[in-house]
Amino acid sequence: MTAPSVVVLDYGSGNLRSVVRAVERAGADVTLTDDFQAGLQADGLVVPGVGAYAACMEGLRAIKGDRLIGRRLAGGRPVLGICVGMQVLFERGVEHGVETDGCDEWPGTVSRLEADVVPHMGWNTVEAPQGTRLFDGLEDERFYFVHSYAARSWDLVTTGHTREPLVTWAEHGGDRFVAAVENGPLCATQFHPEKSGDAGAALLRNWVESL
Fold it and tell me: What architecture (CATH level 2) is domain 5-209?
């Protein structure tokens, strides 16, 4: 059986090498590139991200990554966002008073966590919904987070013609935020599966096996 092809999008942000190794261990044939056509043709696309929202969007737009994500999703082609690679999928992000337009695949704003201790750094449990594929067999596991910002509400309203997205939540310092989303071909995690040990490895296997 041929391993599915996955492109890890190289737009100058993210733990690129560790993400590549983690997705390879999950069973994929992985290429690290910023090439639009390669990203379009792969079975799966991973969009990592570390740092500031605005800087990530600038890097993404410089290689037409926002258009690549949109083109893939229009054709039902799987995309996985990680950390800021998840945040940029929302309509906008606000950091230090600066508002930046995102990829607008989901409505909503990414904003600073309202907790006594920020950043949120370390292992945390998540509340996964019924029917999840990403968290199949992992409902009681902990995952590794490093972030100061998150989507703290879920605003997407679906009609009876589309399947309701599966939203996984987590909490830090009393502030509840979106930890993961499964929305047809578009999936994303606020935590770092590549840093989350056996649980993260299993989650990536679940995603790769769905390609």
Answer: 3-Layer(aba) Sandwich (3.40)
